[in-house]
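Why should sequence recovery work at all? Because a backbone constrains its sequence more than one might expect. Tight turns favour small or flexible residues, buried strands favour hydrophobic ones, and helices have their own preferences. The token representation captures these environments compactly. In the example below, the structure is given first.
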């Protein structure tokens, strides 16, 4: 088993776009209308949007590969890039996206540990994320990793309002 990770640069924008598009569609297509999925994918994963996110100095992307195949990525945010107003002692995991065929190989845990390592290096007190209330697999994983629900916020999938649970882990 060969897992590698690298920090992304602007040259990785197309790869991130493709992985984001594929994993989001795989994960959420069955529970949402085709129109809402299409609208969301076009907004969140168009190349211009991905490049904009990549150029934000308060965000970082890490590409993970498994046996030399791109398998997913991690996106973390600090300070003003966080999707909720949080203090400077917080680091957000905005995305842990693993392509279906690479799931259950420990890659999600690998990326989560990388996010925690960065948060500790930067003297953050807590790490947090939002997860769709109907994504039971992910919620179970985050609970197993020591996260607890600390709130909720609205997330729009096209024209449908959905609820993301805010889950937090205190680091020190």
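From this structural description, the recovered sequence reads:
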């Amino acid at each position: 088993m060969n897992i590698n990770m690298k920090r992304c640069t602007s040259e990785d924008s197309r790869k991130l776009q493709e992985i984001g598009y594929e994993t989001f569609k795989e994960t959420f297509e069955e529970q949402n209308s085709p129109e809402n999925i299409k609208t969301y994918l076009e907004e969140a994963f168009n190349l211009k949007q991905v490049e904009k996110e990549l150029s934000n100095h308060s965000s970082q992307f890490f590409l993970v590969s498994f046996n030399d195949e791109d398998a997913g990525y991690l996106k973390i945010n600090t300070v003003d890039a966080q999707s909720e107003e949080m203090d400077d002692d917080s680091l957000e995991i905005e995305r842990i996206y693993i392509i279906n065929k690479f799931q259950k190989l420990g890659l999600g845990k690998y990326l989560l540990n990388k996010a925690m390592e960065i948060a500790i290096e930067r003297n953050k007190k807590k790490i947090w994320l939002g997860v769709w209330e109907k994504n039971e697999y992910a919620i179970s994983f985050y609970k197993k990793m020591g996260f607890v629900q600390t709130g909720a916020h609205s997330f729009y999938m096209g024209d449908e309002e959905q609820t993301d649970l805010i889950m937090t882990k205190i680091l020190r």
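A few observations help interpret the result. Residues 3-124 form a domain with the Aminopeptidase fold (CATH 3.40.630.30).
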